[in-house]
Write a structure and sequence with these properties.
about 15% strand, Rossmann fold, about 325 residues, alpha/beta, 12 helices, globular, 5-stranded parallel beta sheet
């Protein structure tokens, strides 16, 4: 018996990526219908009432009155690891399990994190521009550049992505410290060469601080004026998680008053970003368009995890990576 799969996506998702998604849900195993977030609510309700399982790529908010019609859905599967933009509470209220991608994009995001560390440390965009325009004069001959070797890197959030960052940094011979509300076991710390350190000590002593937290009430503005005031001069801040983790006014001040050497960003308060954003126009900011987890390798792993979860449901087994406790 085939599963009735509803595939939900944003209008901006390119056709090639939509085709890739559908390759993982072949007929006759899956009967697939499509929906975007711009589909009228009445049509959304009909489709959710029809579906056995739903693939959200990406996961965005649906109001309770729409979700309620899908209360017989066996699984809502997100292809991302984050779920702060999805109506988790509504799904839980109606008894619908919601799963994330099981860390499928952790390696991709971790690589991008280290890429940003290197790009800020060597001012890669400026160096590229100087090379392509022939304007070599005026550079500081490396006096404003740094290696990762020997640097104290503080990882805040030690889940799949944070641990993957630590694993990569071992190869750069960085000194890795981490903070998480749940300490890792000793064998993991030894394997990754990471030392558990209180949050304030991470803030005070790190050369580079990188954020790997979910966005929620407890993590909002976890880096603010107080934390910037505790940092060493010329600290680098990397954020590939959510912009809400950082107080943006305090961030702008720290970038312009010499507190921060620079920042590497992949997430923003408003996405897509806008021209003349005061932070993004600064010369000590390296920015990418929320693409850290967007690689072909990560897509394939996320889709493989998703289809396996749907097959588990079809076998009346409990799905993996549930994030709403259902």
């Amino acid at each position: 018996m085939n599963q009735k799969l509803l595939y939900v996506y944003e209008e901006r998702i390119p056709e090639d990526l939509r085709k890739l998604v559908l390759l993982y849900f072949p007929t006759p195993e899956f009967e697939v219908k499509h929906m975007t977030y711009l589909t009228p609510d009445d049509a959304k309700k009909v489709l959710l009432a029809w579906a056995d399982v739903v693939m959200f790529a990406p996961g965005r908010h649906l109001p309770d009155e729409v979700l309620e019609t899908g209360k017989n859905i066996k699984l809502m599967q997100l292809w991302s690891s984050g779920y702060d933009k999805f109506n988790i509470a509504g799904a839980k209220k109606f008894g619908i399990p919601v799963a994330n991608n099981g860390g499928a994009n952790a390696g991709s995001v971790a690589e991008h994190t280290v890429l940003l560390m290197l790009a800020v440390g060597k001012w890669l965009p400026d160096s590229h521009k100087r090379t392509t325009t022939g304007t070599w004069a005026g550079n500081k001959h490396g006096l404003d550049m740094f290696m990762l070797k020997g640097k104290k890197v503080g990882i805040i959030g030690f889940g799949n992505i944070g641990r993957s960052v630590a694993r990569i940094l071992k190869g750069f011979q960085s000194n890795v410290f981490y903070y998480d509300i749940k300490r890792a076991d000793e064998s993991t710390e030894v394997e990754l060469g990471a030392t558990f350190t209180p949050f304030e000590e991470i803030i005070k002593n790190s050369d580079i601080i990188t954020l790997h937290l979910h966005a929620n009430d407890s993590t909002k503005n976890i880096i603010g004026a107080k934390e910037f005031g505790m940092m060493k001069k010329d600290t680098t801040l990397i954020n590939v998680s959510r912009a809400s983790l950082v107080d943006q006014d305090a961030f702008l001040k720290a970038l312009t008053d010499g507190t921060l050497h620079g920042a590497g960003l992949d997430v923003y308060p408003k996405e897509p970003t806008e021209a003349n954003d005061p932070i993004l126009t600064l010369p000590n900011v390296v920015a990418t368009p929320h693409m850290a987890g967007s690689t072909m390798d990560a897509y394939r792993e996320a889709l493989s995890n998703s289809v396996e979860n749907f097959r588990r449901v079809a076998r009346s087994e409990k799905p993996l990576w549930i994030v709403n406790g259902i």
